[in-house]
Amino acid sequence: MSSSGTDFLSRLLGHYDAGRINRSSISKIFDAEGFSEEYKSEILGRKPNILRGGKFELFGFLIILSAWLIILGIWFFSDLADIDEPTNIFWFIFAAVALSIVLHYFSAGKNQKILEIQLIFAFMIFINSFFFTDSLWEYNQFDTDEGDVINSKWIFRGFINVGLSLIVVLGYHFVAQKHELNFSKILVGLGYFLPFFGLIWYTIQGANEQPSWSWYESEKTLVFHALLVLVILGMHVLIFSNFHKTFQSWYSKIQTFLIHLNLCWVLWVLPFTFIEYFDSDEARFLVIASILIFYFAFSKFTANKSTELSNRNGSYLAMIPYLLTFSHLPAVASFFLFGEILDILNDDNFEIAFIPPMLFFCGLAVYHVQSNPFMLKIEKEEYGLRWFNRIIIAILIVYMIIFLIILLEEYVFYVFIPTGIIIAGTVVAKVIK
Predict the structure, then answer these.
(1) Which contacts of 369-375 are long-range, i.e. CB under 8 A and separated by 24 or more positions?
(2) Residue 38 and residue 29: Cα distance in Å, rounded?
């Protein structure tokens, strides 16, 4: 590179470190100048100097604190003034702040710091209004005078709940990504809890009027289950889309990880609600097996979507929460598969149901490391794969312990005590060396 090119790059990085150029703009400049993807990832992955002192995080937390102090003050004032619907005040404030954001966003003198203050404040107001507006959280009590249930009105309220939260969170996500509003990225990652919570609420409420889950075949539960699946699939598409381009920055990594965590808690609940649609163990096994196959393929795609080591490490780390979320599903699927056999055996050989899950996790580990997962020494640079493999082995060991306890019962001490002594002795020997 010529001296003029070096000087240009030095000045450009100086502006970036000072916070005068955001990550999106400098990425476009790198593309136009023909810099390699590896160099671009190296530069964009570091934290600009303006953010290193912790002032930016403090700025965001102070705005959140001020917003909630104002919210609490309004609640206490409403109680003192005996206002019947204080949430109407919050919705009015939210609408006013949202209007100011739109006007500021399209103004000539737009200031990104002021824009982020407005967005954080509006989001805090929305969270408060969303959870405390009774009409958004109906208990499925819309009946006619004759006692017939009115499903359509209840479903409409559910659509308002989910649709409103999705619009707000996706809009916030878009603005945070486009203008590199770093603290807002973290809030958005947490904010995806809102639409998922609303979906789970209405899915469960659809069957909550009966002592059992017998209403799962009804239209209301099916509507929200179908919507929940669509949102989950949409979130997976979003994570790997240009809309959510992360540039491997620290804030974007945290945001992506928080979105994955929101997906994980929903996916943990989902199988237990979905299997209620099916009466036979075979059908329930197919449901659980389908979910496992989908996420096995997802883990393969995630791990191989990039040849860059940093991206592979991040992909494997992102898969760990999913691995923990679905760690129980192989056992659930196995019990459905062997349900009739266990009934015939009168549960005398209960432990056989733990063999397929152990084989599944062992096979998963072998596939990803392409070797013996217990003996292979994975390089420190491959820390993502190393931790992914360790978590698989830990889950496999837990399954083996449960299997041995059920198989040997009180005689399991013949295995546990010698094994414990051997492991402790091996560790001590390594430490002495």
Answers:
(1) none
(2) 15
Distance CA 296, CA 281 (A): 22
In this structure, are residues 330 and 395 in contact, taking their beta carbons and an 8 Å threshold?
A: no
Q: What sign does the CA torsion over 258, 262, 265, 268 have?
A: negative
75 domain residue, yes or no: no
CB 246 within 8 A of CB 256: yes
CA–CA separation, 243 vs 405, rounded Å? Answer: 49
DSSP letter string over 138-196? --S--B-TT--B-HHHHHHHHHHHHHHHHHHHHHHHHHHHHTT-HHHHHHHHHHTHHHH
Q: Any alpha helices (H) in 241-328, and if so which ranges?
A: 250-274, 281-304, 309-325
Please state, in angstroms and rounded to a whole number, the distance separating the CA atoms of residues 307 and 324. Answer: 25
Q: Is 126 a domain residue?
A: no
pLDDT band at 168 (very low <50, low <70, confident <90, very high): very high
Closest-CA residue to 320 (of 406, 383, 241, 376):
383
The stretches of 21-149 forming alpha helices (DSSP H) are: 23-33, 37-44, 49-52, 55-80, 86-105, 112-132
User: For residue 138, what are the contacts with CB-CB under 8 A and spacing of at least 6?
Assistant: 154, 157, 158, 205
| 47 membership: H or E segment, kind and range | none
pLDDT for 258-281, tens place per residue? 888 888 888 887 777 777 667 677
3-state helix, strand, coil in the chain (%, to 5): 80, 0, 20
Instruction: Name the amino acid, one letter, at 118.
Output: Q
Is residue 329 in some structural domain? yes
Q: What is the pLDDT of residues 60-107, one digit of tens each?
A: 788 888 888 988 998 988 888 888 788 889 999 999 999 998 888 888
Is position 80 within any domain?
no
- Residues whose CB is less than 8 angstroms from the CB of residue 276 and which lie 6 or more positions away in sequence, other chains included: 207, 213, 216
**Number of folded domains that form the chain:** 2
Least-confidence region, from 12-16, 103-107, 383-387: 12-16
Residues 6+ apart with CB under 8 A from 250: 45, 47
For residue 18, give its domain range: 1-53
